[in-house]
Amino acid sequence: MSLDDRTLRYYGAVCETGSIRSAAEQLGLAPSAVSRTIAALERRLQTTLLERSARGVRPTEAGELLLRFAKDRAHLEELLTENLDEHRGLRRGRVRVAAGEGFIDDLVEHGLNSFLADYPGVSVELSTGGTDEIRDLLLADEVDLALALHTTPHRELTVVRQAPQPLHVICAPDHPLAGLDEVAPQRLADEPATVLPARFGLRALTDQIQRTHGVLLDIRLVSNSIHAMTGFVLAGLGITLLPRFAVGRHLAGRRLRAIPLAVAERDRVRAQLLTRAGRTPSFAAARLLEHCSEQLDSLNTR
């Protein structure tokens, strides 16, 4: 079976945009041309590839298989180009990375800066998001590698490297909890706090700790921005629960304190470097995976 690149490109555009008309606009074609191509593809494969409704179109189960095939083929072609460039000594490429915001300082300072200096022909596209968003980007092959905390195990995800990152109570140096060696969960009751939104793995763990130990934080700020959460704590408005590396610069500058949380759940938190199972990394992605594994504080317990 031979499927040409043009047909697969049209089909991918329809799946991405959710409609024939939007795909045609993106491709600079008449909607009828895109529609005819998709109809011919369905006849050729003898199966329905798209479900049509008033809200647009979406891939059927067979359509999802074709979409994965199209993405895999595009990746293999990119992989071949990069490997040939490597063979010729050009060392070029592109790496797409997704990371939780708590990783950004560590990733940029200890990972990307030195990597980009060593590989001037490689570019990196960096996205941030919640744990669920990062997982979905990786499973959809929208990114090549990901850094996340407390991810739910998935058979299509490969953990390249991981390290324990226990939860700590993060507070200002003059906070009443700052002088403790360890914080019992009962001490969290009614403490003003800032937390991540529900789509983040750490928020799920924070909620679980409250349920397990029968305590309720006084949640004053919900934000997907570690910067905003840190500002809340720096202002003396309350506490948050995070691994140490997420606020490493502030701890080094003694602007914040991190006190271990005395609960079993804290030891379940893992910082993880992830790829999609079965996907061969490009030359550039493989080098960045190695570099991050060795250099990131969040992935090492040194």
TrEMBL record:
Residues 1-60 form the HTH lysR-type domain. It comes from the Bacteria. InterPro entries: HTH-type_LysR_regulators, LysR_HTH_N, LysR_subst-bd, WH-like_DNA-bd_sf, WH_DNA-bd_sf. The keyword Nucleotide-binding does not apply. Pfam families: HTH_1, LysR_substrate. The chain crosses the membrane at residues 226-247. Keywords: DNA-binding, Membrane, Transcription, Transcription regulation, Transmembrane, Transmembrane helix. PANTHER family: HTH-TYPE TRANSCRIPTIONAL REGULATOR YBHD (PTHR30419), NITROGEN ASSIMILATION TRANSCRIPTIONAL ACTIVATOR-RELATED (PTHR30419:SF8). Belongs to the LysR transcriptional regulatory family. This is LysR family transcriptional regulator. It comes from Prauserella alba.
